[in-house]
């Protein structure tokens, strides 16, 4: 009688702990500085400074006081602060009006609010690695044909 209820309570506790971790938010507060490589499996918010690379399998948020110099690879990004470097976003890049971005961007979808400073080279759409290989192979074939 009591054993059945305990099992249900343990299962519910485990499930709630699991869901909390999957929605976790990493945070780098204002005044904190990291130099090097940062890897995050859940969302990360940066209000401090990162100089180096950030690899995130979820969402990257650069707050209004945040600054990242280097390389970012992520699924989604919201930028309100400053970024300089190479940014690769698999899905949606949202650039807010307070953002200042300089560098190279690759994203599938892009939103840029009026007032944002957006000085970038931008590649849009899903990047297929095979397409690059095929086009490079075709270019070599064309060069060989012209040389013959």
Describe the structure.
This protein is α/β, with parallel strands linked by helices and 148 residues long. It has one domain. The protein is built from two helices and ten strands; from the N terminus they run αββββββββββα. Strands 1, 2, 3, 4, 5, 6, 7, 8, 9 and 10 form a ten-stranded parallel sheet that branches. The N and C termini lie far apart (86 Å).
Question: How would you briefly describe this protein structure?
Answer:
By secondary structure, the chain is of the alpha/beta class.
Distance between the termini: 86 Å
H/I helix tally: 2
Level of helix content? 25-40%
Hey, roughly how much beta strand do the residues contain?
A: over 45%
Number of strands: 10
Rg is 21 Å
Largest sheet: 10 strands, parallel
Kindly report the average pLDDT value. 82
Q: How do the SSEs run, as a string of H and E?
A: HEEEEEEEEEEH
What coarse outline follows from CA principal-axis ratios? globular
| Low-confidence parts | 7-21
What's the number of structural domains? 1
Going by helix content, strand content and strand pairing, the class is alpha/beta
């Amino acid at each position: 009688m009591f054993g059945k209820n305990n099992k249900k309570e343990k299962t519910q506790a485990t499930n709630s702990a699991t869901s909390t971790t999957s929605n976790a938010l990493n945070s780098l507060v204002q005044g904190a500085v990291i130099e090097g490589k940062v890897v995050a499996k859940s969302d990360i918010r940066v209000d401090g400074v990162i100089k180096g690379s950030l690899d995130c399998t979820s969402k990257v948020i650069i707050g209004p006081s945040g600054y990242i110099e280097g390389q970012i690879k992520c699924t989604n990004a919201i930028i309100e602060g400053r970024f300089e470097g190479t940014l690769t976003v698999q899905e949606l890049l949202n650039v807010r009006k307070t953002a200042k971005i300089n560098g190279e961007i690759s994203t599938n979808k892009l939103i840029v609010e009026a007032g944002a400073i957006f000085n970038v080279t931008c590649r849009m759409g899903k990047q297929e690695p095979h397409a690059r290989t095929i086009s490079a192979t075709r270019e070599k074939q064309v060069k060989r044909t012209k040389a013959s």
